[in-house]
Each structure stands twice: as C-alpha cells, then as structure tokens.
Amino acid sequence: MPDAAGNAIARAALSLIGSPYRYGGAGPDAFDCSGLVAYVHQQLGYSTPRTAAQQYASARPIPRADLQPGDLVFFRLNGGAVSHVGVYMGQDRFVHAPQSGGYVREAGLDEEFFRERYAGAGRLYSPAVPALGPRSVSGCCRR
C-alpha cells in the first residue's frame, strides 16, 4: 500500500514536468536527473546524496514488483555505472530529467530504451518515519 511520504514525493516530481534540463541543475528552475530527485526529497525534509550513482548506493533496494510511488528507478545509460534516476509514479511510469535540451517528463519502464538499461530500484526515505523539515509529510494534509 502506498504511503503518504511516497505519494508526496511522486506529486512533487509530477509538479515539475516541463521544467528544463540543465546539467548540474538542482532546481527550482532547471534540473538534471539526480538534481530532480534531490530537490523533491529536500522539499519534503529528506536529505539525499547528489549524484545518481550515490543515490543508487544509498537507497534501500526495492524489488521491481514492490515499487511504490516515490521510489526511485535507476538506469545504466552508458553501460557500467548507474548514471540516470527517476521518481516512480506507479503503473510502470516515472518522472525524470532527460539529457541536455530536454525537459522534465514522464516515461515508462516498459519503453525499450529504459527496459534495456534498467539497473534497479530503491527508496531513500523511510515510510515509517515522517520527515522533519520545511514541510513535514506527516503534517501536509491535516484538517
């Protein structure tokens, strides 16, 4: 069952669709892939490593069959090391910041390009522990 923190991360990533790609961009006006991940986590009070490879190394592994909104999906674009990351939305969809000249957009894990380069998935937040910071996930929706 999806949790509030994961859903909040997914919603934050969706809200950035259309933002321009910029190498090294970490928001709020432009993003690279790992900058997008770091930014949406930071907005909810979670700190993250900066690069896709560091995020992959730090994330708690999640089997693909257990992916939930807010989890991260990782790719090896040039073989070897993990070099790309996106935020999972559910139903095999994710939001990512593609290469130079692109915009933050949604894509599918079943697209041939990503299917062939999929490296794994993971979670950088702990669903059992609410974020503390600028906007606490646990307090976002109280009435």
Task: Please explain how this structure is put together.
38% of the residues are buried. It contains four helices and six strands. The chain has one domain: endopeptidase domain like (from Nostoc punctiforme) (endopeptidase fold (from Nostoc punctiforme)). Helices cover 24% and strands 19% of the residues. Helix 1 (4-14) crosses helix 2. Strand 4 (93-96) and strand 5 form a beta hairpin. Residues 129-143 have low confidence and may be disordered. Strands 1-6-2-3-4-5 form a six-stranded antiparallel sheet. The protein has helices at 4-14, 33-43, 52-58, 112-117, and strands at residues 60-61, 72-75, 84-90, 93-96, 105-108, 118-123. The chain is globular. By secondary structure, the protein is of the alpha+beta class.
Question: Characteristics of this structure?
Answer:
single chain; 143 residues; alpha+beta
What's the structural blueprint in terms of helices and strands?
Layout: H1 4-14, H2 33-43, H3 52-58, E1 60-61, E2 72-75, E3 84-90, E4 93-96, E5 105-108, H4 112-117, E6 118-123
Antiparallel strand pairs: 1-6, 2-3, 2-6, 3-4, 4-5
